[in-house]
Amino acid sequence: MAKSLLCSSALNSFFSPTLSSSNSSKNNQIACSGNIKTQTPSLSWNRRELSLGFMSTFLAVGLVGNNDRRSRDANAAILEADDDEELLEKVKQDRKKRIERQAVLNSAVKEKGYLQDLVYNLSKVGQAIENNDLPAAGLVLGNGSDTEWVKTANLAFTKLSASPEENTEVETFNSSLASLVTSVNKNDLESSKLAFVSSASAFEKWSSLTGLLGQLKGI
After folding, report:
1. From the centroid of its chain, how far is CA 90?
2. Would you say 80 and 72 are in contact if contact means Cβ atoms under 8 Å apart?
3. Which of 22, 158, 201, 217 has the most CB atoms lying inside 10 A of its own CB?
């Protein structure tokens, strides 16, 4: 009996450290497991925070981009509206000028009569040159600027010319007409033809610019 107790006591003393060590190891494993379990939610939470942060950044960038596009679109619409208003105003002003110009032309009965005389006398000069009859052309032309139908034509030019382009054509006409008179007086047929064509072309352009091209006979 005593021997059995001794054996039991010896066995207990032998297994006690082992059991203690085993229990300690188990406790450590449990503790570690507990730590791992408690740390895992923290890592998951950090991942969610990062994901939310990236999503927020992308959304913010997208919103900023959309706002920039909307701002640019709004500015473009404002500019387009301003352009439309300027264009509309220009159309109104052009229409007003055309109406005023047409009123001047309609009332310029005497001036249109002067211009009709110009067409008639230029036609006579052209026919004489075509027939190689420079003396006949010289009779119609006279001294050029001092000839009555030339002076009255210039009165009409002065009243009805309203733009730099029209005034330029008037200057070209008078310059070409002076060359025509000189060429006819010199009995230079070829130069007379060239000068006549130049003067007639200048008058036709002027008539087109002023809107009289269809209102004068013989052009």
Report:
1. 15
2. no
3. 201
Residue 162 burial (CB count, 10 A): 14
Q: 81 by DSSP, 3-state: which? A: helix
Helical (H) or strand (E) element with 135: helix 134-141
* Terminal-residue alpha carbon distance, the chain: 156
Distance CA(104)–CA(19), nearest Å, equals 126
Look up tokens 């188990």; give the residue: 26
Summarised one tens digit per residue, pLDDT across range 77-105 is 676 767 778 887 778 777 777 777 777 77
Residue in the block written with tokens 């003396």: 135
Give the span between the Cα atoms of 4 and 80, in whole angstroms.
111
* pLDDT (tens digit per residue) in 29-68: 444 344 444 444 444 545 555 555 555 554 445 545 556 6
The number of beta carbons lying within 10 Å of the beta carbon of residue 64 is: 10
CB-CB neighbours of 155 under 10 Å = 13
pTM for the full predicted model: 0.58
